[in-house]
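Encode chain A's predicted structure.
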Amino acid sequence: MKTKLSRFAKVSLLALVITGTAVGCKKSPTGVTTLPKPSPGLVGPEGQGGLAGGEKIKSADENKFGGGETATWNPGDFNADRAALAAYTVHFDFDSSVVKSSEKANVDAVASALKSDAAAKLLIEGHCDERGTEEYNRALGERRALALRESLATMGADPMRIRTESFGEDKPVDPGHDESAWRKNRRGEFILMHPK
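Encoded structure for chain A:
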C-alpha cells in the first residue's frame, strides 16, 4: 500500500509541476498580426480637425476659424448619391491616415465637384481592413476620414459642408483575408449629398 501511495504522490507531484510550468510560462501568441503604433497622419491633436502643424481649418465662405468643428447638417435631410464620386475613392497604407501623393488627384476631383455644386454636402466614410481591434479600427477610420476632410479644406472646399463617419472594419468591399483584399478595404469613400 505504501508503494502505491508513493507512486500516486510522485505522479501527482509531477503533474502539478508540469501544469504549473505550462500555465506560468509566457508564450508569444502565434498567428497575430503586430500593429505598429498609430501614425498621426494629417489629423491635429486628438483628432480635433487641425491641419498638420496645429493650424485650424478656415471656413472657405466666411474666412474664419471653425472647420475643426463638426458640420451641423443632418444627413437624413439629404439624398445620398454614392455613385457620383465612387471613382474617386482614396486608399491608404496599412495603419496610416496620411493621404498619399498618388491619391491627391482623387481628392482634387472631389473638391472641384463640391465647389461646383453649392447646394451639395459631402459625407466621407473611413474604412479599415480586418486587422486590429474593433475600437482601434473605428478610430483609424475616423482619422482617415478627417485627413480627407482636411485635404479638401486645403483645396478650398468648405469643411462645414463635410461630415465624417467611420465604419472601421465593418463594411469591407472585399471579404478576403489577404493583402489583396486588405488593400481595397483601407479606404475613404465620398458620398455626395443633395437636398431632398
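Residues 25-67 have pLDDT under 50 and may be disordered.
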